[in-house]
Fold this protein.
Amino acid sequence: MKRIILSLVLIAVAGTGVIGATRAYFSDTVTSNGNTFSTGTLNLTVDNKEDPLVLHLARTNLKPNAPWTTQYGGQWVIKNTGSISGTVTVTIKNLKDYENGCLDPETETGDITCGSGVDQGELGKGLLKNIVWQLNQAPWGSLTPSFSSLTSAIDVPVTGVKYHLDPGESKNAYLNINWDNSSGDNQGQSDGVEFDVEFVLNQDP
Amino acid sequence: MKRIILSLALIAVAGTGIIGATRAYFSDTETSTGNSFAAGTLDLNLDGVNTNVVKFSLTNLVPGDLGTGTWILYNAGSINGYVDIHSIARTDNDNLCNEPEGLVDTTCGAGEGELSANMNVDLFIDVDHDGVFDAEDTTIYTGLLSGIAVNYDQNIALNALATKYISLNWGIPSGAGNNIQSDSVSVDMTFELGQTTAQ
């Protein structure tokens, strides 16, 4: 009887050892915590305004001048207020070329589009020319492509290194438009043009 | 009288012999001292240290960026083991929305970032230790970071004094948009070297 009790005690002790082993095998852990991925920001302001970045221009009461003497464009301060660099692309959109009725001088010089539609005028079709985006500060210079008319500039994006903006950098973007005198100038009397200019800042590739 | 004395003397001598015999039977002894039981060791080092390793601390990322990082796992112990990755925790933050982000993202609070849902990752056993996820390697997880699991019981065999490499390739697709501007995602993970595959 004494030997039976002793055997039972030994089995119990051995069983405890097995249970303990399954609960406490060796192990070691090392963490890799605190890994972070953070994106930058890209944000353009035009004349210190966040939005909209599609500006509307209306030009009226224009007249022809000696070549390159009077310009009808505009200038805007473009600024990158983000944390990464990028380059601005500008695009002329939604041209409206108004005739505003035909006067005698217009019809006498061959103007036969005298309706009220947005494509009846002649300013956008070529009387206004030398459509060129420029950097209006040092280092001065033009961007490509340039256009012979507003019509040909519609929806064509223009960009270049001159419109590259580092974080916090601002530049003066200038749109040059001329009405150089020519034989067909009378067709533009009382005409008017409106269009939008879209500014987009894209991150550098 | 003389015979009596002689008898007594013989008895005394005989008695002495009997006593001597009980003290000097044949015998021999050998020792088995110095028996010992010593446990082995299991010690995982990550990049050569036993402390936390921050593998990625990247800022100012943009769509189109990509990269890789490799953890060096070394069994500095004396017994073989198996490595698992567990307790993977991911936290996305929007860090507020700037003007371009706000136009396309209406969730701008803490925990509401979109970066992990716009980041592809490949977590793999880098068999050839080149940081490139290729046919020789063993996939642990591939997909969007937002879909990574909490635990990976990989049971990667790591023998005593052996080294293996686990790499994470990451990339933000060029098609990602303004909704991830200024976002951040943090990732925690734990590497465990266990004695058995059951751990």
Observations:
- The longest strand of chain A covers residues 86-98.
- Chain A touches chain B at residues 25-43, 50-51, 82-84, 203, 205 (CB under 8 Å).
